[in-house]
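Limitations

Structures in this collection are predictions, not experimental determinations, and the ligand pose is part of the prediction. Treat each record accordingly. The example that follows, with 2-acetamido-2-deoxy-beta-D-glucopyranose as the small molecule, is included so readers can see exactly what is and is not provided: the inputs are given verbatim, and the output is the predicted complex.
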Amino acid sequence: MINQYRNIVKSLILLSVIGFICLNLYFYWKDTVPIVYAKLKDINETTRNLSPSTPYPKKRRKSMECPSELWNQVHTDIVPNEDLHLDWIQKNISRRDNIMESQIRLLTAFVYPDHISITTTSQRSFGQNVSCMYYDCLREEIENSRYESVFFPMNVIRCPRRIGAKYVSIGLEENGNGPKTQEPIPMIYRNFETPPHQISVCVGPIYGLENRWLQVAEFIEHYKLIGVRHFYFTIFNINEYGRKILDEYQRTGEIELTVIQSEYQNVDWQFHLLQINECHQRSKHHSKWVINVDIDERLVILDPKIKSVLELLNGYNDTVGEVGFAIRRIQKTGQLPEKYESEEQILSEMEFLKYNVSSPVTWGAYKTIYRPEKIAAMYYHWAYQRYPGTVAEYVKSDVALIRHYRTTESNILGSGWLSDPNYASFSIVPIEDPKFGEKLAKAVLEKIKYVYDQRDLNCEEIAEVPYQEYKEFGHDIFNCRFRNETGDKR
Ligand SMILES: *[C@@H]1O[C@H](CO)[C@@H](O)[C@H](O)[C@H]1NC(C)=O
Ligand SMILES: *[C@@H]1O[C@H](CO)[C@@H](O)[C@H](O)[C@H]1NC(C)=O
Ligand SMILES: *[C@@H]1O[C@H](CO)[C@@H](O)[C@H](O)[C@H]1NC(C)=O
Ligand SMILES: *[C@@H]1O[C@H](CO)[C@@H](O)[C@H](O)[C@H]1NC(C)=O
Ligand SMILES: *[C@@H]1O[C@H](CO)[C@@H](O)[C@H](O)[C@H]1NC(C)=O
Ligand SMILES: *[C@@H]1O[C@H](CO)[C@@H](O)[C@H](O)[C@H]1NC(C)=O
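Predicted complex:
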């Protein structure tokens, strides 16, 4: 009896194992069969190999050459909230025309579960008609896939999904000659049901002649200490020395970089909204909350019971789309250092250690942390338009605020703030939490030294074999110095 029972159980287990394997094989087959990587270079050869009696339709052959990915089997007919967008366009809500003759260059594109966003470098297209265009893995346009959409907000085009689309572009009607298009760009994957990051920072654009290397490290390490693990940076321009620190944080996977290249030689504060809007689209479905601040702004938590930004935001329910923070401006009277020199230099040049002459707390130009999916259009500081059913909340300034190390130079936007009555009664405000300060200084120093404390190659380090092998071309071909020439003891 027991043996029979055992055999039945064994057979059942065997059957289910076989079934499981078959299912797996089926799905494996289902996933892999269409992935026929034809030799793309020689189309004639591929065509020749096909039997003439079964001529493949052109479209079918193309899709055979592209992998058919499960996540990319989505077709949608509409752009979510499009009627609302059209209504807001009619009413000019969030409209801001800044640079009227700029080229409309494709910048980035993102694919979400139910739509696609494309961003451009133009600040003059609000509400304009534009076609979404879709391309397969071979950058060939997918037949009958175009969609008539509009720019909303400023430099953003929203499009429905198309099966197998890997690249997108836009078509702009010009004098009835049919749409003029441009080189398609890849869609960045944002097809997440739950965002992989709880909180990230959209960092204001980097531009100008001041050297940013130390400021970037101080900024990132500061936010890491309050629980942030991901950053979206945008470069208008930066010198090679400053770029090294960004490359370093990109290496560790902590930052994403958007680089804006336009036809203008100088891209500066007048282009700031490009970053705001691009970062909004970039963070959708990727980060639940986004801190919208500039590189000289640091969120500080004053309530000692609260250890991280997420803890601070925990109390807000799903209707809250935006949380505002008051600002304390601190006079940044000097320039950031040009190059790394020493530990002492770093300890005296970090903004949070160097500057403490502060304005009173104000709500004048408050900044927000927002939920990217709940916002339709962002403005510099806060949401221009939230979707219906969402509200904004404000954090008391004794719980948390934003310290803004604002330059006192006079040739900048908003200069003259020193004599503005909202800010004018200055006092010295020491850093709120010396322990936090110590941790921050240590983290910045470590990172800066890792990237910038670099040395010469000593000739003594070169192994005998390559040295003898190449010495015949002369010692000078080696980029190295003998220790007796440098006095370097390392
Ligand atoms: C493919 O075949 C056509 C017609 O035979 C010929 O004109 C063309 O040059 C060939 N292309 C290549 C890449 O060999
Ligand atoms: C919207 O803005 C445009 C350009 O400034 C203007 O021509 C138009 O009259 C405005 N429409 C409304 C409804 O305000
Ligand atoms: C834009 O498209 C809409 C809807 O298709 C159409 O009614 C409108 O006339 C178009 N506007 C322009 C300026 O072509
Ligand atoms: C959610 O939060 C908002 C704003 O804080 C509040 O007005 C609303 O009552 C809350 N809703 C629920 C269901 O708790
Ligand atoms: C304010 O900053 C100055 C200059 O860095 C420093 O000498 C001074 O000790 C600081 N004062 C306080 C109260 O932190
Ligand atoms: C330093 O040492 C190298 C290798 O031992 C030697 O060839 C060179 O002449 C020395 N230079 C000086 C300035 O002493």
